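Hey, I'm writing a tutorial for new members on how sequence and structure tokens pair up, and I'd like a real worked example in the thread rather than a made-up one. If someone can provide the structure for the chain below, I'll link this post from the tutorial.
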Amino acid sequence: MRTTRLSRGYDHVPQLRRVPHAAGEAQLSSHRSARVEIDLGALAVNLRAVRGAVGQAVVYGVVKADAYGHGAPAVALELERLGIDGLAVARATELEELRRVGYSGRLLLLGGPESAEDLGRAIRWTATPVLTRLGQLAAWSAWLRRSGVGAGPALEVVVEVDTGMSRSGLDLSDWPEALDDLRAAPEFRFAGLMSHLAESEQVESSFTGEQERRFAAAAALLDPSERRSVPAHLANSSAALRRASARWTAVRVGGALYGLDLATLVDGSAGAGLRPVMSVKAPIVDMRHVPAGAGVGYRRTWRAPEPARIALVRVGYGDGFSSGFGGGEVLVREERCPIVGQVSMDSLTVDVTRVPTAAIGDECVLLGEQREQRIGVGELAGRAGIAAYEVWCGLNLRLPRLVIGHRDGESAAKGPVRGSSRGGTRRGSAPSSR
């Protein structure tokens, strides 16, 4: 092994040899930098798959947390164009962004509102708030009177009941009283009944069946006209795709829209036909040969068992690519190559020895597909011991979003989506409710 004496008192260290640039490669690269790609064509495919599974049920697309990290403005506008029945968010602060970019359909505020300010936002941006506990209705009514907007059209309200997740929603014992109060209040209009499933991804779960029975008991209190006109929704993505008994008259889907293949996480019984909407790609920016025994990265946690070619990719945990993904694989020239050494804040290192043609400028896929090969979100989540949704949401805006694939797979890229500010009516129902 060749060694280089650094100075007196230092140990000998292996000499690393940079891979020479190909002819003309010394110029600045024309390859795209690290980015997140959002494929709207895949979004369209996934919505069609959901529609095919749920039939005539109303479909709410969940776009909370910036559409699970996919970029809520672009996703919302495309879903509206594709005919989604409505969208759902978790925070009142998320409503304004969607209206300002031009989304004009139904908006459901899943989380509250908990404050007068948030109730005001729901009214201003024409969203339907969700009632989650007894006493909220009286507080909302008092605020409407004090604020002077109580004389407007009735405010639509959806009621959430807790069927066993023990996180939010009315106790089932309080549901009859809340329903009576809602029916008696002229300033409100009952617009839906909902609940959350705790473990629908587990196919053999008997508790999901128990939640379905509890929800059916709650829905049994609705009168015939309410059953015909008021959406009832229990099913999330997993239940919408494979439990007809959970679908009722509406479903709320997030993961399925973004291409979360439930089959890869559970049992192979669902998820077929879904396409991942998000990909993470970055070019190889540097390459070097390292001799056997050389350590790579902080604390030299990986040592080359034999001479190796190490590629540098400028994506790290500072971009939301978790250190927990270390030891996984990426795609280079349609080959799986291992991430070696620790994931750093701004970069990671990949052993591309098995791909002798790999070169600076080659595209590296950290999440997504490269022809027949795929790095799925479930694969990354499993390695880090987190939920697949956390992988998406964790990728921050230091990685720019590139929106591609408009109108059912058209390949031309499009830039950031911007629209006019659109506030809508003052109260209650959304301007467009399908």
